[in-house]
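*** Backbone structure tokens ***
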Amino acid sequence: MFTLAARRLAIKLPRVRFGSSSAYDEALATIRNDLKLNFRFKADVLEKNVIRSILAETKNLEIDNKDKDLDEFKLYDLLSKMIKQRQDSAAIYLKEGSPDRFRQTGWNELREVDYITKYLEALPVASAEEIEAKVEPIVQSVLEEEGELKSPKEIFSRIPWKVVNQDWQASEGAVKNTVLRLYNLYKTDA
């Protein structure tokens, strides 16, 4: 139906998603390219399956948010969620006294975390340390004014949520996780 030249041209054209950021599109293009390379060079089957699951989850994200803009922050939250799911299931599989086949599944889950982390770290978003450096002064100001932390709401109310994505280069989910972690840290110390 199509000539060979037309098929080659179609393969090289990037897919454009309307309402998504360029960083989001570049990350997905990298993931798709890695899948192609895995097929071409017959790489690790587990890595291939992880890439397929990432692409499936991003497709579900796009379907769920078809009227909303997608950016690298939503992708960051998605990949973070996938990592947490795999870490939780690995902890269950690697419990003391588990059969060997369960333990192997747990180790595979941890290997999948490594592959997903590679894509998570490639996103142009702030690291956990950078987010903590921004949240820490807010926590300190609450401690100075109130004397102790009664609830995380005291910290959440002082976060400039409108500029978290642009100025902090962080996803809201990552900021929330950092706030909760710091709250629990300072709450136990108080």
Remarks:
- Helices lie at 4-12, 22-41, 45-64, 72-93, 100-122, 128-146, 153-156, 172-189.
- The radius of gyration is 21 Å.
- The chain has a mean pLDDT of 87.
